[in-house]
Amino acid sequence: MWREYHDEHVSVLVEEVLKHLVWKTDGVYVDCTVGEGGHAFSILSRFPGVQIVGIDRDEEVLEIARKKLEIFGKRCRLFKAEFSRIDELFHGLQLEKVDGFLLDLGVSTYQLMAKGRGFSFNRDEPLDMRIDLSQFKTAWYVVNTYPEEELERILREYGEEPFARRIARNIVAMRPINSTGQLVEAVVKAIPKKVRRKRHPATRTFQAIRIEVNDELKNLAKALEKLPDFLNTGGRIVVISFHSLEDRIVKRAFRDDKRLKIITKKVIKPSFEEVKENIRARSARMRVAERI
Fold first, then answer.
1. Residue 206: closest CA among 103, 128, 144, 285
2. pLDDT for 35-79, tens place per residue?
3. Is the pTM of the predicted complex or chain greater than 0.90?
4. What digits encode the pLDDT tens for the residues 147-206?
5. Residue 216: which of 61, 38, 84 has the closest Cα?
6. Alpha helices in 191-236 (DSSP H)
7. Backbone φ and ψ of 274, nearest 5°
8. Residues 6+ away with beta carbon under 8 Å from 193
C-alpha cells in the first residue's frame, strides 16, 4: 500500500554514525531500523567496501529504502524483521558475526506524515500507530479496551505524563474514541487550562500509546541483550534514542553487559547547526559500545 507522502526523512547524527560505527571499512553492518535508508545510504556511499543488512518492521518504509538503496546492488540487502528477533534473522540468513549494529529509534518522517498511519496529533485520522501493519494491536484497541488503571500506568510510565490519571479517566468517559482528533480532544479537556506547555499537550499521550502499541521499550531491551552475541571483537553497537526512557535502557544495558566496553563516556548530541537545519534532531542522543 502506497500513501500520499511528500517530505523526505532527514537522518540525524550522520557524521557521528559514520565515525563511530564503521571501524572496519570492508565490514558487514546491520542497520536495525533502516527506515527510509538515510543512514545506510551515507554509509554505503562513504565506504565502498562495506556491506549493509537493513531491517525494519514497517514494509512501507522498506519500499522507500529499496528504491533509495538499489544503486548499491548486492552490497545492500533489506528484510522485514524485528530487531529483537535478530537471532532468528541471522539463523535464516546463515550469518554468524557482523562488525556493527545501528539502531535509530526515532519515528520516521514517512510514518508521521503519510496519511492514515495515525502517528500524528496534527491530523484527524483513524487510531492506528502500528509500525508493523500486520500486527493485531492498534492504538484504537489500546484506547478503547484497556482498563482505566492500565491506561493511567501507560501514560505515566511511557509518556511521563503528570496528568495521567485525569487523561485516562477522560479517555474512558469519552469512549468510543475512533480518531486521533477525538483522542487529542480527550487529552486537552483533561489538562487544566492554566497549564502551559512548550509542545502540543497530546505529545506525551501519543508517545505513550505508540510505545505500548509497538512494544518499543521491551523490544529494545531484548535486542540489547542479544546483539553482542553476533558482534565480532571490536564490533560496535550505535544507538540513537529520542527520549529519556529509551536512553536509560541503552545506558543501563551498555553499563551492565560485561561483553561490552562503553566508547561514549558522555552521550553524543546533535550540533547547534544540525538542530537549526533539522528541528527533529533536537532530542536525539547517541551512545556507542564496543564488543571486547
1. 128
2. 999 999 999 999 999 999 999 999 999 999 999 999 999 999 999
3. yes
4. 999 999 999 999 999 999 999 999 999 999 999 999 999 999 999 988 877 789 999 999
5. 84
6. 203-214, 216-226
7. -65, -45
8. none
Strands 28-31 and 51-56: parallel
Q: Which of 17, 108, 120 is nearest to 65 (CA)?
A: 108
Distance of CA 89 to the CA centre of its chain: 19
Architecture of domain 14-111+217-291: 3-Layer(aba) Sandwich (3.40)
Q: What cell numbers appear for 202 in the block? A: 497530546
Where in the chain does DSSP place strands (E)? Answer: 28-31, 51-56, 76-80, 98-104, 231-241, 260-262, 285-291
pLDDT exceeds cutoff 50 at 278: yes
Query: Confidence class of residue 100 from pLDDT cuts 50, 70 and 90?
Result: very high
Q: Which residues contact 77 (CB under 8 A, 6 or more apart)?
A: 51, 52, 53, 54
Would you say 291 and 233 are in contact if contact means Cβ atoms under 8 Å apart?
yes
Question: Are 88 and 60 contacting, i.e. CB atoms less than 8 angstroms apart?
Answer: no
CA distance 1 to 150: 33
Q: Is the pLDDT of residue 213 over 50?
A: yes
Mean pLDDT of the chain: 95
Q: Where do the domains of the chain lie?
A: 14-111+217-291, 119-215
Give dist(CA 19, CA 39) in Å, integer: 12
C-alpha cell at 255: 553499563
d(CA 191, CA 169): 12
Identify whether the C-beta of residue 111 lies closer than 8 Å to the C-beta of residue 61.
yes
* Strand partners of residue 290: 236, 261
Question: CATH number of the domain at 119-215, please?
Answer: 1.10.150.170
